Amino acid sequence: xxxxxKADGLWTVTLNNPQKANALTGAMLAELVxxxxxxxxxxxxxxxxxxxxxxxxxxxxxxxxxxxxxxxWERLSGAIAALPCLTIAALNxxxxxxxxxxxxxxxxRIAVPHAKIFYPVMKLGFLPxxxxxxxxxxxxxxxxxxxxxxAGQKITANEAYQFGLIDRVVEPDQLMPVAHDLVADxxxxxxxxxxxxxxxxx
Length: 202
Known about the structure:
The chain has helices at 26-38, 60-64, 72-82, 100-104, 121-124, 131-140, 142-149, 157-163, 175-188, 191-201, and strands at 2-7, 10-15, 44-49, 53-55, 86-91, 94-96, 108-111, 116-118, 155-156, 168-169. It is α/β, with parallel strands linked by helices.
Protein backbone atom coordinates (compact mmCIF):
# COMPACT_ATOMS: atom_id res chain seq x y z
CA UNK A 1 0.00 0.00 0.00
CA UNK A 2 3.02 2.28 0.51
CA UNK A 3 5.66 1.89 -2.18
CA UNK A 4 9.17 3.31 -1.86
CA UNK A 5 11.64 3.48 -4.72
CA LYS A 6 15.17 4.84 -4.48
CA ALA A 7 17.21 5.81 -7.53
CA ASP A 8 20.32 8.01 -7.60
CA GLY A 9 19.34 9.86 -4.44
CA LEU A 10 15.69 10.32 -5.37
CA TRP A 11 13.16 8.73 -3.03
CA THR A 12 9.68 8.32 -4.48
CA VAL A 13 6.92 7.45 -2.04
CA THR A 14 3.67 6.25 -3.60
CA LEU A 15 0.33 5.68 -1.91
CA ASN A 16 -1.06 2.63 -3.69
CA ASN A 17 -4.47 1.64 -2.40
CA PRO A 18 -6.75 3.22 -5.03
CA GLN A 19 -9.65 0.88 -4.25
CA LYS A 20 -9.99 2.77 -0.95
CA ALA A 21 -9.02 6.19 -2.33
CA ASN A 22 -5.60 5.83 -0.68
CA ALA A 23 -7.19 6.34 2.74
CA LEU A 24 -4.54 6.02 5.43
CA THR A 25 -4.70 3.34 8.09
CA GLY A 26 -2.60 3.45 11.22
CA ALA A 27 -0.20 0.92 9.73
CA MET A 28 0.20 2.97 6.54
CA LEU A 29 0.75 6.14 8.53
CA ALA A 30 3.40 4.45 10.68
CA GLU A 31 5.17 3.23 7.55
CA LEU A 32 5.15 6.75 6.10
CA VAL A 33 6.63 8.08 9.34
CA UNK A 34 9.42 5.49 9.21
CA UNK A 35 10.22 6.44 5.62
CA UNK A 36 10.19 10.19 6.30
CA UNK A 37 12.38 9.84 9.37
CA UNK A 38 14.88 7.75 7.41
CA UNK A 39 14.90 10.07 4.38
CA UNK A 40 17.65 12.30 5.74
CA UNK A 41 19.93 10.44 3.34
CA UNK A 42 17.73 11.29 0.32
CA UNK A 43 18.78 14.07 -2.04
CA UNK A 44 15.17 14.68 -3.12
CA UNK A 45 11.81 13.18 -2.23
CA UNK A 46 8.59 12.96 -4.25
CA UNK A 47 5.30 12.02 -2.63
CA UNK A 48 2.52 10.84 -4.96
CA UNK A 49 -0.33 8.35 -5.31
CA UNK A 50 -2.02 5.88 -7.64
CA UNK A 51 -5.51 6.42 -9.04
CA UNK A 52 -7.71 9.49 -9.24
CA UNK A 53 -7.38 10.39 -5.55
CA UNK A 54 -4.10 11.27 -3.85
CA UNK A 55 -5.56 10.41 -0.46
CA UNK A 56 -8.94 10.60 1.22
CA UNK A 57 -7.17 11.18 4.54
CA UNK A 58 -7.59 8.86 7.48
CA UNK A 59 -9.54 5.64 7.11
CA UNK A 60 -12.85 6.67 8.70
CA UNK A 61 -13.27 3.60 10.88
CA UNK A 62 -9.77 3.97 12.27
CA UNK A 63 -10.20 7.74 12.59
CA UNK A 64 -13.20 7.23 14.84
CA UNK A 65 -11.26 4.62 16.81
CA UNK A 66 -8.50 7.12 17.62
CA UNK A 67 -6.35 7.53 14.51
CA UNK A 68 -7.63 11.09 13.95
CA UNK A 69 -5.84 12.26 17.09
CA UNK A 70 -2.73 10.09 16.77
CA UNK A 71 0.64 11.81 17.14
CA UNK A 72 1.76 9.98 14.00
CA TRP A 73 0.32 12.79 11.82
CA GLU A 74 2.52 15.41 13.46
CA ARG A 75 5.53 13.11 13.41
CA LEU A 76 5.05 12.60 9.67
CA SER A 77 4.63 16.24 8.73
CA GLY A 78 7.42 17.27 11.10
CA ALA A 79 9.83 14.74 9.62
CA ILE A 80 9.07 15.86 6.07
CA ALA A 81 9.39 19.55 6.93
CA ALA A 82 12.77 18.91 8.59
CA LEU A 83 14.33 17.09 5.63
CA PRO A 84 17.43 18.81 4.23
CA CYS A 85 16.48 17.92 0.65
CA LEU A 86 13.86 19.26 -1.79
CA THR A 87 10.47 17.63 -1.19
CA ILE A 88 7.62 17.65 -3.70
CA ALA A 89 4.01 16.53 -3.37
CA ALA A 90 2.83 15.39 -6.82
CA LEU A 91 -0.93 15.23 -6.38
CA ASN A 92 -2.41 12.74 -8.82
CA UNK A 93 -5.89 13.65 -7.58
CA UNK A 94 -7.94 14.91 -4.68
CA UNK A 95 -6.34 15.64 -1.33
CA UNK A 96 -8.56 15.35 1.73
CA UNK A 97 -8.49 15.41 5.51
CA UNK A 98 -5.38 14.58 7.48
CA UNK A 99 -3.40 13.81 4.32
CA UNK A 100 -3.12 17.59 3.93
CA UNK A 101 -0.47 17.60 6.66
CA UNK A 102 2.25 15.74 4.79
CA UNK A 103 1.51 17.71 1.62
CA UNK A 104 1.66 21.07 3.40
CA UNK A 105 5.01 20.00 4.88
CA UNK A 106 6.53 19.54 1.42
CA UNK A 107 8.53 22.32 -0.21
CA UNK A 108 6.53 22.30 -3.46
CA ARG A 109 3.09 21.06 -4.49
CA ILE A 110 1.97 20.25 -8.02
CA ALA A 111 -1.41 18.84 -8.98
CA VAL A 112 -3.49 17.55 -11.87
CA PRO A 113 -6.42 19.73 -13.02
CA HIS A 114 -9.16 17.49 -11.60
CA ALA A 115 -7.68 17.53 -8.08
CA LYS A 116 -9.66 19.11 -5.29
CA ILE A 117 -8.46 20.03 -1.81
CA PHE A 118 -10.61 19.88 1.27
CA TYR A 119 -10.20 19.25 4.98
CA PRO A 120 -13.57 18.50 6.63
CA VAL A 121 -12.08 18.02 10.08
CA MET A 122 -14.55 20.31 11.87
CA LYS A 123 -17.54 18.52 10.33
CA LEU A 124 -16.15 15.20 11.57
CA GLY A 125 -15.74 16.57 15.09
CA PHE A 126 -11.96 16.76 15.32
CA LEU A 127 -9.34 19.48 15.50
CA PRO A 128 -6.74 19.53 12.72
CA UNK A 129 -3.22 18.59 13.64
CA UNK A 130 -1.58 21.68 15.20
CA UNK A 131 0.93 22.39 12.44
CA UNK A 132 -1.56 22.08 9.56
CA UNK A 133 -3.40 25.41 9.97
CA UNK A 134 -0.09 27.16 10.65
CA UNK A 135 1.50 25.87 7.44
CA UNK A 136 -1.65 26.46 5.41
CA UNK A 137 -2.05 30.02 6.68
CA UNK A 138 1.62 30.73 5.90
CA UNK A 139 0.88 29.81 2.28
CA UNK A 140 -2.58 31.28 1.70
CA UNK A 141 -3.45 33.50 4.67
CA UNK A 142 -5.82 33.15 7.58
CA UNK A 143 -9.09 33.87 5.74
CA UNK A 144 -8.56 31.30 3.02
CA UNK A 145 -7.39 28.77 5.62
CA UNK A 146 -10.67 29.31 7.46
CA UNK A 147 -12.51 28.92 4.14
CA UNK A 148 -11.12 25.39 3.94
CA UNK A 149 -11.12 24.39 7.61
CA UNK A 150 -14.21 26.18 8.91
CA ALA A 151 -16.41 26.90 5.88
CA GLY A 152 -15.72 23.40 4.57
CA GLN A 153 -15.05 24.50 1.02
CA LYS A 154 -13.62 22.19 -1.62
CA ILE A 155 -10.93 24.08 -3.51
CA THR A 156 -10.21 23.19 -7.13
CA ALA A 157 -6.66 22.82 -8.37
CA ASN A 158 -6.89 26.10 -10.26
CA GLU A 159 -8.24 27.93 -7.21
CA ALA A 160 -5.48 26.38 -5.10
CA TYR A 161 -2.93 27.62 -7.65
CA GLN A 162 -4.40 31.12 -7.53
CA PHE A 163 -4.31 31.03 -3.72
CA GLY A 164 -0.68 29.84 -3.65
CA LEU A 165 -1.51 26.47 -2.11
CA ILE A 166 -0.42 24.67 -5.32
CA ASP A 167 2.67 25.75 -7.23
CA ARG A 168 1.80 24.27 -10.61
CA VAL A 169 -1.17 22.58 -12.28
CA VAL A 170 -0.09 20.00 -14.86
CA GLU A 171 -1.80 17.40 -17.02
CA PRO A 172 -1.84 13.85 -15.60
CA ASP A 173 0.68 12.50 -18.09
CA GLN A 174 3.07 15.31 -17.16
CA LEU A 175 2.77 15.02 -13.38
CA MET A 176 5.81 12.85 -12.73
CA PRO A 177 7.94 14.29 -15.57
CA VAL A 178 7.42 17.76 -14.10
CA ALA A 179 8.20 16.47 -10.59
CA HIS A 180 11.40 14.87 -11.88
CA ASP A 181 12.35 18.09 -13.67
CA LEU A 182 11.85 20.08 -10.46
CA VAL A 183 14.21 17.85 -8.46
CA ALA A 184 16.85 17.51 -11.21
CA ASP A 185 19.06 20.40 -10.04
CA UNK A 186 18.94 19.21 -6.43
CA UNK A 187 19.95 15.70 -7.42
CA UNK A 188 22.97 16.99 -9.32
CA UNK A 189 24.00 19.60 -6.74
CA UNK A 190 26.39 19.28 -3.82
CA UNK A 191 24.08 17.99 -1.04
CA UNK A 192 25.67 20.39 1.44
CA UNK A 193 24.79 23.36 -0.75
CA UNK A 194 21.26 22.10 -1.29
CA UNK A 195 20.79 21.56 2.44
CA UNK A 196 22.20 25.01 3.15
CA UNK A 197 19.75 26.67 0.76
CA UNK A 198 16.89 24.70 2.33
CA UNK A 199 17.90 26.03 5.77
CA UNK A 200 18.12 29.59 4.45
CA UNK A 201 14.61 29.37 2.98
CA UNK A 202 12.97 28.32 6.24
